[in-house]
Write a structure and sequence with these properties.
This protein has one domain. The protein is built from 15 helices and no strands. The two termini are 40 Å apart. The radius of gyration is 21 Å and the shape is globular. It is mainly α.
């Protein structure tokens, strides 16, 4: 059967390279290492974004019986229900909440597809009906107008009643696209002209070497083909020391991102601490992308049959979005922040590939240390 793919519109600015990073593993790090750099015992100030909290949510049982079980624990906390009294806030809320519903539907549709196909993508003997867990006021939270609410209800009804056959799944995919394309009631909070202006100067505005003078050196140390996991862990220890010592939040975010790329054993918890901190940094979108990738890869797995708890990830995404919103309200001329917020809103789920091909976290891990965040025409690893 032809694979049905439901995608959201992504306001892309060439951020695919953010997704690349290191897979975490259990540390064998010793406290007596050369250069007198030692692992510092530190517990990041984070809650649901930590490895321990996520692992505690995982149910036991066969693969088919646990799919979606973590995701349903986070039905609440994904929609924006805050202040909408200004044009910017109203515009953000409408776009965030519609995109959230669409992401939730895509997660449910992919489970519908997964449960109706075997490894190798052959069909199961009988259709397993689709399921989309909903909040009591889901449609009211997701959409501000009655037209979208009615369309969303029809879409969910289709998912939960159709057979997994091409003519029905394709009709559902087309209806999904129609809902995506329904115009917003509120104007964009970033115009095309403003977006193009930020795009033109993006790499200067995003330059991490303004905060970490030896940033290029830090990156190049982890790119060598002869650098193995253990060596990366050893090299991560000076970065941990710098992370803990710095007070500047932009700088702390940069060190947190690099700790993850250096295979630091507590990388996920450090990134979670940055997400839950509440302070603003232009690098928080990248932090969330990195945290989600590593949480999926280390905690939930790279298989197409793995749990992909998008609601959990979107609880964390909303924390970051609220931090951006607060910053923009206080700094309404910060168009870089608006562009990054737009990307945060429209960044898609981690998708499942076909039966043999895992999920998108696996693909990102395959690029371990081979790319880093540079303008497309300046990626030195392509040379």
């Amino acid at each position: 059967m032809k694979r049905v793919t439901l995608m959201l519109f992504v306001a892309s600015i060439g951020m695919a390279s953010i997704l690349c990073g290191c897979k975490a593993k259990t540390s064998n790090i010793q406290t007596n290492l050369e250069d007198s750099v030692v692992y510092v015992k530190y517990t990041p100030k984070a809650t649901f974004t930590t490895v321990a909290e996520m692992e505690a949510m995982m149910p036991t049982g066969d693969v088919e019986s646990i799919l979606g079980k973590v995701n349903v624990q986070f039905l609440d906390g994904c929609y924006y229900t805050g202040d909408t009294s200004t044009p910017f806030l109203a515009s953000f809320a409408e776009r965030w909440n519609k995109a959230e519903f669409l992401r939730r539907f895509v997660n449910a549709e992919e489970l519908f597809e997964r449960e109706n196909t075997n490894y190798g993508d052959s069909l199961t003997a009988e259709t397993v009906r689709g399921v989309m867990p909903l909040l009591p006021n889901e449609y009211q939270l997701a959409f501000r107008n009655a037209n979208c609410r009615a369309r969303a209800k029809t879409l969910v009804r289709m998912l939960t009643t159709i057979d997994y056959v091409p003519e029905q799944t394709e009709r559902m995919a087309n209806y999904f696209t129609e809902l995506v394309n329904v115009p917003f009631d509120t104007p964009e909070f970033l115009t095309l002209e403003e977006k193009y202006a930020v795009d033109k100067d993006f790499w200067g505005l995003y330059d991490k070497s303004k905060y970490v003078a030896d940033y290029e050196v830090i990156q190049k140390k982890r790119l060598g083909e002869d650098v193995d996991y253990d060596e990366l862990e050893r090299l991560s220890l000076p970065l941990q020391k710098k992370y803990l010592a710095t007070e500047d939040f932009d700088t702390k975010c940069i060190y947190g991102l690099e700790l993850a790329c250096y295979n630091f054993p507590d990388q996920i918890d450090y990134l979670g601490e940055l997400i839950e901190d509440g302070r603003y940094s232009k690098y928080l979108f990248e932090v969330w992308i990195s945290w989600r990738l590593r949480a999926q890869s280390r905690v939930f797995g790279n298989s197409t049959w793995s749990e992909i708890p998008d609601n959990l990830y979107d609880n964390a995404r909303l924390l970051v979005a609220k931090t951006f919103v607060k910053h923009i309200e206080e700094n309404p001329s910060d168009e870089l922040a608006k562009l990054l917020l737009m990307n945060l809103i429209y960044t898609d789920n981690l998708h499942r590939a076909g039966g043999y091909y895992g999920n998108e976290a696996m693909g990102a891990d395959l690029m371990l240390r081979t790319r880093y965040f540079l303008p497309e025409d300046e990626d030195e690893t392509e040379e």
